[in-house]
Amino acid sequence: MTIHIGAKPEQIAETVLMPGDPYRAKWAAETFLDDAELVNEVRGMLGYTGTWKGNRVTIQGSGMGMPSLSIYANELLKNYGAKTLIRIGSCGGMQPHVSIRDVIVAMTASTLTSPSRGFFKELNFAPCADWSLLRAAVNAAEAKGTKTHVGGIYSSDVFYDERPDLNEQMVRHGILGVEMEAAELYTLAARYGARALAVLTVSDHLQTGEALPASERESSFGDMVEIALEAAFSG
Ligand code: HPA
């Protein structure tokens, strides 16, 4: 047990999928895992462990934003020995060729700041995905026929943004989408010798103002869970 995760050490798998929303962790575990068992409900941040095609996997909510994700990722990596962490979540599209429902596999994650900023001080660390996971996720997405983009994303600290000029710079530099967690996940995985990836569904678009209808959120989220599971266990 840790401060924020009530599971016994053996109740957490080496592979952990991390949606921001704890209810999505519940839905994904009930939909895709065999013998899913609730292993955490501290602060309502639900976590489940079960098997997928015979492989043990935990699906643990991370909460929204890098400070929240940092708490769960730190405890999973340091106290539970997690080796593979895959964020599954949504993002806002930032480029004209990126549409809602598309999937983004994040090669890098830029930030303005992050919980690790104080630690790195003058250094600008470049958070990047694990190559083996990235390649496997792209293969899985292509096999499913999902329209997929691979490239850089922006992990922002704010959803309600008062600095549109920052987004403009990200767009200008080819950044595909904006979310709020991946950069710290990649940084922590690097620090503790683990593998990390973020697989994201484009749920809204900053330029067109389009948004995924609530009725479609579940099915597009399901594609992403399958891509993440295929990537985690691709050998
Ligand atoms: N901004 C930040 N995070 C997000 C967004 C967004 O537009 N959409 C989904 N996650």
Rg computed from alpha carbons, rounded to a whole number of angstroms: 16 Å
Give the total of beta strands: 9
- CATH architectural name: 3-Layer(aba) Sandwich
List all distinct small molecules, including ions and cofactors, that are bound in this structure: hypoxanthine
Q: In this structure, how is the largest beta sheet organized?
A: 5 strands, mixed, barrel
Average pLDDT confidence is 96
Shape: globular
Strand order of the largest sheet: 5-8-7-6-9
Instruction: Give, in order, the helices and strands.
Output: EHEEEHEEHHEHEHEH
Q: Which blocks of ≥5 consecutive residues have pLDDT under 50? A: none
Secondary structure tally, helices: 7
CATH-defined fold name: Rossmann fold
CATH superfamily: Nucleoside phosphorylase domain
Helical content (DSSP H or I, runs of 4+): 25-40%
Please indicate the count of domains.
1
Calculate the terminal CA-CA distance, rounded to whole Å. Answer: 30 Å
> What proportion of the residues form beta strands (DSSP E)?
25-35%
By CATH reckoning, the class would read Alpha Beta
Q: What structural class do helix, strand and pairing data support? A: alpha/beta
